[in-house]
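pipeline: protein-struct stage 2 | run 1193 | Tropinone reductase-like protein
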Amino acid sequence: MAEANRSSRWSLQGMTALVTGGTKGIGGGAWAPRAAVPAGGGDTRRPTGCGTSAAVRRCGPRAGLVCHVATRATWQYAIVEELAELGASVYTCSRNEAELNECLKQWATKGFQVSGSVCDMASSAQRKDLITKVSSVFNGKLNILVNNVGTNIVKNTLEFTEDDFWFLVRTNLESAYHITQLAHPLLKASQAASIVFISSGAGVVAVDIGSIYSAAKDGKLLEKYLRATPLGRLGELKEVSSMVAFLCLPAASYITGQTICVHGGFTVFGL
């Protein structure tokens, strides 16, 4: 009996989870709270990578948690797998249908219980549709919600347009607030739910985001930031996804309202 109780405290078996934007970072390997964006052209609207924040709130008998865990597209993919490995049935979404289908195929070959649909989290109508689908798949109950969608626009503050501003607000703030609001009935129905918000470590320590992004292209600058990190190395995917999973476990049921940084001690020294 004692062994069974111990096992259940460290398992997500039988639980359901929604991870927003969970298909990115298929090829990602390591992360640091500064050098997160590879060199190259393309859209300047990119996932943030300057630290991590995960805010968890518990609903039902176990209530409320806030933690900081560095966010990056690679975490999204890793988090889906971490939760699935611990036994959870996971639902995820992506704006890219081809990317989503490829990920679902890969997860199926690994034996993971993962399903998903196309959703642009910046769209209110699509968020509502997403929750309707999740409710149908999980029979109206949801144990875990991981708000992991996030993006950034790399440009000087004075160059931001009104469209840029509202794009970021809709994607990074409004989407997490609204999807949590929509999911609340499902979370409450499970009677033991966790909500995790992934955000940037910039909420803990001020950072020069331009320098952070350019660090990916400048070896000397990257070295500077690594020296400012007590552990002196880049973080591994599992080191972030495992924290998110831990916060969702029954074993962590009394952790709530906290900010937990997963960045090798970067905020100890600041910038």
